[in-house]
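Hi all, posting the design record for the shared folder.

TITLE: backbone redesign
STEP: 1 of 1
STRUCTURE INPUT:
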């Protein structure tokens, strides 16, 4: 899209999502070689500009793990994505040892005013699996959801 720097912005909480979103970025770059994916450790220059990074991204991935909705910066990213009308992909951590929780648990952590826009809006939801063969399925589902929400493929 015009004025866009990234096809995908990875929104996550450091404590439970950093390793997974790094894998998502590197594996998506293998599946979709020309893709540009925002990841804080690679692209963040100014924490005060999170909303601008969201604005310059086509699709926003919320990596949902315990604590995500308690993070001030994650909530800034969520609110920016929603206010800017960005397409969203929800990725739910499956492993309880890595911050995984059921959709009900994650929804309960989410501020009440945001719950309908995130959990009732029919955004693609992908369960993140860490076992290789299952992880490939998760990655392909993320890639498909991303492509279907980019301007070239959007219905």
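Okay, here is what came back for every position:
SEQUENCE:
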């Amino acid at each position: 899209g015009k004025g866009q720097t990234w096809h995908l912005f990875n929104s996550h909480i450091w404590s439970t999502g950093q390793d997974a979103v790094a894998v998502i970025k590197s594996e998506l770059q293998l599946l979709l070689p020309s893709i540009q994916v925002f990841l804080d450790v690679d692209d963040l220059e100014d924490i005060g500009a999170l909303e601008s990074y969201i604005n310059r991204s086509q699709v926003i991935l919320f990596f949902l793990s315990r604590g995500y909705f308690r993070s001030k910066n994650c909530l800034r990213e969520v609110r920016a994505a929603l206010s800017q009308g960005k397409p969203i992909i929800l990725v739910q951590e499956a492993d309880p040892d890595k911050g995984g929780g059921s959709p009900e648990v994650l929804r309960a952590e989410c501020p009440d005013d945001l719950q309908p826009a995130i959990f009732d809006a029919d955004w693609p939801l992908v369960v993140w699996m860490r076992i290789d063969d299952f992880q490939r399925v998760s990655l392909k589902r993320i890639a498909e959801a991303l492509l279907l929400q980019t301007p070239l493929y959007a219905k």
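COMMENT: The longest helix spans residues 14-31.
Let me know if anyone wants the other runs.
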